[in-house]
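pinned: reference chain
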Amino acid sequence: MIKHILILVFLMPVLSLYAQKHYSISGTLKDAATGETLIGATVRIKELPQYGAASNSYGFYSLTATEGDYQVECTYIGYQTTITQVSLHKDQTLNISLQPKNDLKEVVIYSNKPNNDQVSSPQMGVEKLNMAQINSVPVVLGEKDILKTVTLLPGVKAAGEGNTGFYVRGGTSDQNLILLDEATVYNASHLLGFFSTFNSDAIKDVTIFKGGMPAEYGGRLSSVLDIKMNDGNSKDYTVQGGIGLISSRLKVEGPIFDDKGSFMISTRRTNFDAFLKTSSDSTLKGSTLYFYDLNAKANYHFDDKNVIYLSGYFGKDVLGLKNTFGTNWGNTTGTIRFNHIFSSKLFSNTALIYSNYSYAIEDLAIDNNFTATSKIEDVNFKEDFQYSMNEKHTIKFGLNILHHNILPGEISAPQNSSFNDLAVEKREGFEDAAYVSDEWKATNKFTLVYGLRISDFMLLGPGTFKTYDAAGDVLTAVPYGAGSLVKNYFNLEPRLSASFLLDDENSIKASYNRNTQNIHLLTNSTGSTPADVYVMSSNNIKPEIADQLSTGWFKNFSDNIYEFSAEVYYKLLQNQIDYKDGAQLVANPDVESLLTYGSGRAYGVELFLKKKYGRFNGWVGYTLSRTEDKFAAINEDKYFPATQDRTHDLSVVGIYKLTKRWTLSSTFIYSSGNAVSFPTGKYNIGGLTTFSYSERNGYREPANNRLDIGATLEGKEHKKYHSSWTFGIYNVYGHWDPYAITFQDNKNVPNTTETQLTSIFPRPIPSVTWNFKF
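pinned: its structure tokens
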């Protein structure tokens, strides 16, 4: 019976009949000044307000209506509204270019449409950020940072001071899928987490999905952070950049191939090593400390229906203390994407994607000299389709085939070292998926998005694959040849989102989604570090599974100037992974023997109030939540707070346009401290004190709070160039937020223990950056 109902639901679009003739309008939406495609712009028929569409991630839109003469209205935040008269008596193409607004009296905070889309859209648990807003938010040392801004949203929590990792609705940092032009970025941090890998000069659009995840996304449990790079200015050549205390930036873009295409190259590099060279300290003078990144993109339009894009990212960090140690890590991504418009209703995106993350750690001591390396490499083929069947149904479907190649760890050492060479066997696997979803506008008030994602993971040889007992001892060790199937996991991931309009300003929404994850991060730290170890699902490790239910109330008021939302969620987690006490993860050939498996749950409420327009705008976000784990081998199989559990999380962001040239901004955050394990006893063996622990995460770090302020001074207007100055103070009142808490014997008072708190920025940190464009 259930099978027949599901078949009927998915065939509903096919059963739709029409008494009148229907035709389609389709095309691409672009910025008139630069030629950049616009994501999430609204196209509506004024006479039929229920007949509307939004441009997709590639700027394409399609809408269908009954035969007649209409006015087609296009709106997008920060741009002038356009109205085009259309005689709809056949399918037709209407490409639209929007003019940016030149009015600088208001600073616009993020929203994908200047209307009540938050209320009418069936999607919930999603937030969009525009680059103007990101550039205005004050961050550490003046570096504009996408990930730092994302953590100011409700339901998204920073992993801690000096860390770009983040937690979404109780998930761990590795349960977030971070995409840069559709390529996976495994470690999105520079300088051990102080900055993210994303240079905001190169970014066009940022969207984060916290719940109700669309069926086209998969592979992670908690969220998707989808970041799109700029295509490049197809109208004129421009150069822009900035020089700051920490780094310098430069971006060049312009048209190519007689305006049929464009390019963009953006680079950034730190200035630290220049200061080290001038140091009087001989150790610092011979040390290295820098990172760089390079974003590049180009496109070529064969005609109105065919366009090809090539994009890539290259980034690396190098840290080293003279004759002591060294470490370097980096990401490389590449995307070849081809867009084709089959008809006014059918759009396709074909992509071949490459991603590589690797690190190396060196110990340069004479007797202990060694180098430890690790990497994860992906090759992914994707095919996505969007079929705008009619004014009620928009269907998306597609597939992707993803090949993983992981080198968990390898140690190489010279002959005079006390270490021996060691190599952990490589692992290969395929992660394949197919999906279909339909956005069904059932009535003017009720919209339903339903879909299904089918995922299949295959672990392949060559290699020797072991199984372990509860104590971590080897039970079996079976060799497999190249290409042999070791283990297979098949999962169905249903997705469902619905919205019901109470009136023009109020709606209620609900969603359910199941996600699975086959790439797992093994770490002893609270956030991402360069030396993290990635492993795949195996004969010991099952795919992680998350089922999330959420519902909420959404309201716009004061002519859509203000938006308010209240969302409640509950997430059930299966096959969660933790490590046993004292686990050594790096270059361990039996690392799976050190793992324990269990379940988890996360639940909470998120409140969000934002003002989008005017001289003063910003938002207030608050999250009240719990995240708990349950492992048979930990805390007697009872639920206990997960490391990322924080009861309260508050963020306040304000941006004020003081004058035409001056913009002021500030952020304030407050959050409960992380759950941590503190020692409950100690014993002495041979003069060495060892601490003992009674339970996992039975205590709390002190609460975190911080105030940051910033100001931007726009230069005087010139025809050929523009410049600005950005000033900021991080941690204005010098609050001591703990980065690490350690315990040690008190040297002055025998037989007593003292606590040592470490903070990275215990006092105010000023910054200044000069930006230019010509």
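why pinned: The mean pLDDT is 84. Residues 144 and 200 are 7 Å apart (CA to CA).
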